[in-house]
Amino acid sequence: MSVRFKDATGVELPHDQVLAAARDAGLLPRVDAAVLPRAARIAQHFQLRGRDTEILAHVHGVSLPDQDFRAEVTAATIAADGAALVLSFAQSDLRGFGPIHWDILSTMADMGLRFAIESVTDLDMDFDALKSRGFEFVKLDTGVLLEGLPALDGIVASADVCRHFATAGLALIVNHVDDEQALARILGFGVLFGQGALFGNKRAVRSDLLSSPAAAA
Prior knowledge:
CATH topology: TIM Barrel
CATH superfamily: EAL domain
Radius of gyration: 18 Å
Number of strands: 10
């Protein structure tokens, strides 16, 4: 799941610029909090139709200590009613987590939430420990996978990257699969999940589905 920002006239705003401005103004927790109820309704929508679908929603590490954000997480978890809602964090964010962040994640995991790590650029991280903390998915770009990922002892080849994540019990999702050649290569490594232009463009969620929890029924 991704979000789009529009101005008062309905013109879409550049995503990165909006997030940068929100970060500078200390508003990222409010942005993330606004995403969660929508993600929960989408997750419930699929669940009620018998589709076993995880909804991944990107959130920022800076949001975790925010009380209003955590209250929205609780509300979204209740609204999802057991549907698979996954909070996704950038690898760079996870590297800055302190004890308070991990304690909050532990509480969220106890509530039934699961997590993903995205924007992965290297293997210098304890992925087994992430699995034990409730992480289920790892996302990285096609180009990063095909080039291999750096680790402490050098570059790890693409096939070994896939085995590394599988051994840790994490499902690999590859982003930006934009052509048949890239698809053939990543399938050869055993990748099961992908995102990109090859599978179709992003589609807007119906506004009536997001307007109220009842719309998902």
